[in-house]
Amino acid sequence: MKVTKKSRLEAARALIDSIPIGVEFTEEQLDAFMDITGYCDIDTAWRAINPKFPSDPRHIRIVYEGVEDGFSWNKAITQPPHEQVVKKALRDAIAPDLREFMSSVESPWCMSCGALDNLTVDHCKAHGGKRFNTIVTEFMSRYPDIELTRSPDGVGYMVSDMDIEAEWVQYHCDNAVYQILCRSCNASEGCK
Q1: Residue ranges of domains in the chain
Q2: Residue 12 neighbours by CB under 8 Å, 6+ apart
């Protein structure tokens, strides 16, 4: 029988759901978990409350080589390309700017449909701005081998070199123009 990503994800969910929050995996459970995720030599693991997303029912903490850290079993199975992980770290680095923009708008509403709920900050091509993916691609062409390190809270990654991160934030600021869109309009159209 072929082992697929889907079957591995289902097996991981079932295993995690069988373990109460705060309870350490048994040796047998840990061995099964390492087989499913493809990681080996995890010293111990347990199910925990996710500090960024408390409603996440399957957050895992591990100890690997003596260091405790959050562990994305989903990513371990699906293994997103390194470029995707770097883009997420770069997006996280500019998140404070997006929040600041949203809070600076006195009465925010979707610039496309007029909605008042589920609003997001979108990168707009108008007025000399560029789409987020364009800005990231341009920056990554200057720094193709951006190194990442775990975020201090153990969830996700951040740029290892603070000078490169600061340069990224400035480069993004110089090339981004924002607009407010509802989630639906942002997903379907953005500012073309």
Answers
A1: 5-78, 82-188
A2: 33, 36, 37, 58, 73, 74, 77
